Amino acid sequence: MTPESQLRADIVEVGRRMYSRGYTASNDGNISVRLGDDRLLMTPRSVCKGFMTPDMMCITDLDGKKLQGDRDPSSEMLMQLDVYRQRPDARAVCHAHPPIATGFAVAGIPLDRAVLAEVLTTLGSIPIAEYATPSTAELPAAVRKFVKAHDGMLLANHGALTLGADLFSAYYKLETIEHFAKISLVARMLGRENLIAREEVDRLQGLRANYGIQAPAPICPDPSVVGDLLSGPDPLTCQVVQAPEGDGRRLVPDPIAGGNPLSGGDAHGSDGDQEIRLTYRELSALIEDAIRSLR
Ligand SMILES: [Zn+2]
């Protein structure tokens, strides 16, 4: 097991990287690691993550009771604690506000399209936990919907959250999310995302085992083939990835609708004709609305 002194130093280093990369401003963000099975080492509240020292950290139990430290634990301690409760395999949790990923979280656009092979083999999809008031019990409740099947997610109008088998693995997932968001933003500004076809997504998922990647859940089967039309795939048990059938092609061009190049989740035009294509989720939402209005 890594000595406590090393873990304190690692939290300082990860905080410094988060701040220097602009993932946090001022006193934003928080970081924690497990100290054995029943204690956590956690960043204190109201400190800039770029200028921490090892002695600043708090030690708490898994109920949030402070056991050691001069300062109070992070204001997002409730969220941090709940992640460990839901995911016994998690050894570290990082939370920050990386600006491009958070921009997607503000726009309500999940990073769940099949775009980058690297992301599909590691994180799978990056959903958005619904908006909750920071530092309250609402936030862990919102995160709970996705945390069993995902190692990383966006928090609506707030930021991003990642977890891992060790601190640097949790931190690198934060980097991956921001990097993915940056690439997606550029592709959308250029007017097109070529999507990786469903068959290739399945092939990439098979590579997880080859590379020893411990994903918390498999990528959901294609919702257009299986599953309940209204509820769709369950984000508690699998990762929803938007990937079209390729019909032999491994990449499927997907032009972003004209006039709204960053929409991503809205209806897409097709060559200016009258065809409107909807994602599975959008179609389900329309059907749910229609049924609601009949009641
Ligand atoms: Zn935050």
Tell me about this structure.
The structure is a single chain. The chain is an alpha+beta fold and 295 residues long. It has helices at residues 4-20, 77-86, 99-107, 117-122, 138-147, 167-190, 198-210, 280-294, and strands at residues 30-35, 39-42, 58-61, 66-68, 92-96, 128-129, 152-155, 159-164, 192-196, 251-255. An eight-stranded mixed β-sheet has the order 4-3-2-1-5-8-7-6, sandwiched between helices. A two-stranded antiparallel sheet has the order 9-10. β3 and β4 (66-68) form a beta hairpin. It is globular, with a radius of gyration of 20 Å. The structure holds zinc ion. Residues 28, 76, 95, 97, 134, 158-159 line the site of zinc ion.
Ligand list? zinc ion
**Mean pLDDT across all amino acids:** 89
Assess the beta-strand content as a share of residues: 5-15%
Distance between the termini: 58 Å
Which parts are unreliable, with pLDDT below 50 for 5 consecutive residues or more? Answer: 263-272
